[in-house]
Amino acid sequence: MTTEAEAKLEIAQASRILFGEAILDAFGHVSRRHPDRPDRFLISRSLAPGQVTPTDVLEVDFDGKAVSDAAPRLFLERFIHAEIYRQRRDVDAVVHSHAMGVLPFAAVPTARVQPICHMCGFLRDTPSPFDVADHAGPGSDLLIRNSELGAALAKHLGAAAVTLMRGHGYTAVGASIAEATYRAIYTARNCEAQQSAHVLGMPVYLTAAEAEATEASVISQITRPWDLWCEQYPVPADQAA
Length: 241
Description:
This protein is α+β, with helices and mostly antiparallel strands. The chain has helices at about 5-20, 80-85, 105, 135, 145-155, 175-200, 210-220, 225-230, and strands spanning about 30-35, 40-45, 55-60, 95, 160-165, 170-175.
């Protein structure tokens, strides 16, 4: 069983990995379901991901409220995380990113993300991009600022691993921090490869059966990339306690 302290370290570690891999920059965030309270989750205070330490990680309930009365400023879009955890009991980690390599697929109505290689079978059921304007009207700032918008996004995600967000970015989920981190990184890599392949011609994508089989194979080895990334982008020892 993971302790709360270990979970907070995982969030700091994932934040630094995703910053190092250019999936997050000054914006974006990572969360993990609380190991002892499935009706709460852990997420950093509003801070650039590359600066997150375990002491910056807070406990938040599904209404987006910090458990501590003395909590510092929270991310505006914590409702993405809260409502996905509320609707998806199989999800234990969430990553929200604005990676530029993915944004074209969220902006072009005829584009569709499809798994182009064996590392990205998890993308086989990716829905069409979520459009916040359908729920917040045409003049919003495109952010998921409240529980209602978060619930609409979570419903749109359905049982998929990733959902794109029109004019905004994407959100990836997983049964662990390692899995959600992997999916966030390889969503961006798949989109980059898919765009490059289209320059040469029409790509041959993975079939549904291939995507399912390759995902199972990769997930069975998820600690391999996670351990490598932890070594490449470590949380400084004096900040890890």
